[in-house]
Fold this protein.
Amino acid sequence: MDQKFKQSAIENSDSIVQMWMEEINSIKDGNYTASISDELFESTNREFVNVIFTSIKSQGSTKVVEDFSEKIINLGWPLSYITDGLQVFRRVTIDYILGQSVKIDSSYISDVIKSVDAWVEPIIRQLVNEYSGSWEHIVSLQRVALQELSAPLIPVMDRITVMPLIGTIDTERAKLIMENLLEGVIKHNSEVVLIDITGVPVVDTMVAHHIIQAAEAVRLIGSTCILVGIRPEIAQTIVNLGIDLGKFPTKSSLKKGFTKALEITGREVIEHEKTEENVEKLIDSLKGE
């Protein structure tokens, strides 16, 4: 019986596709696909229904399903597009087969539903699994990229590096900060590291503990860590919590911290005379000649 229903659906695929397209188009304006161009929506829908029939004909082809799932992910369309489309296909196919039948009873209807479900459910499972797996891979890559950006160590001058921190610091990020600091200090041959916490909204006992650990680790490999960007409210919180930051220098701004770093490395900022004055002196000297 199942083979009979399948043959009927395949032979009348044009009619089923037309019914499917009409119903899919009718829900376009009211859902997530409303902003998609008509041309792209039309071509993707036709490809989708072709994937469904190809899978049915080949007893569950995996290649076409994988390729289509990857395309939907690249387009940025939600998973509900796939599930909605398959549910619509299931409904119109059942309606079409029943509509072509002369004698219909409860047993016959049950057989039709079971057969169509047996075609559609494997496609749903495979598409959902492919879609979910691909998204998990993308999220994993994004997480790695964000981790690399969450604790960057930037060399700004010979033997001086800066680590700007933005956002909250949890245990996982603190571990990453420690790793990047130690690797970066060795890689850049840093004598001074400036940890800038201007963008850290809250400094509590845990955050301070992580920062102290990082600074101590830097000290143990022969470098100096300067904590900069301490705002008044952060300073007050640190004092109220009784946190001891006396083991390494602290400055209120990155500018002051950088000046301190220059002193530690045996350098200083020297202000040059104004350019206009230099030009005037040059002109006067030329006139004297």
About this structure: The mean pLDDT is 80. Residues 106-150 form the longest helix (45 residues). Residues 154-270 form a domain with the Transcription Regulator spoIIAA fold (CATH 3.30.750.24).
